Amino acid sequence: MHIDIDHALCIGAGQCALAAPSVFTQDDDGFSALLPGRENGGGDPMVREAARACPVSAITVSETAS
Questions:
Q1: What residues contact 46, with CB distance under 8 A and at least 6 apart?
Q2: In terms of residue numbers, what domain contains 28?
Q3: How many domains does the structure of the chain reveal?
Q4: What are 2's strand-pairing partners?
Q5: CATH code of the domain covering residue 17
Q6: Position 66 pLDDT exceeds 70
Q7: 11-34 exposure pattern, b = at least 16 Cβ within 10 A, e = fewer
Q8: Per-residue model confidence as pLDDT tens digits over 1-58
Q9: Residue 40 contacts by C-beta under 8 Å, 6 or more apart in sequence?
């Protein structure tokens, strides 16, 4: 899976970090960021829920070709 955060849309609501704290965090400015090494979601089943929880739809989760 591939996770993309549109930083132009992100408002720093933090819902992603609440839904999937093993994948998402907030940077020094309070905006969404991926934890190091978690660019593919790390198998966390809550990644899609985190994307759905984003109030501005700044997170896109897509499948990657194997």
A1: 19, 20, 22, 23
A2: 2-62
A3: 1
A4: 62
A5: 3.30.70.20
A6: no
A7: eebbbbbebbeebbbeeeeebbbb
A8: 899 999 999 999 999 999 999 999 999 999 999 999 887 877 888 999 999 999 999 9
A9: 1, 2, 3, 64
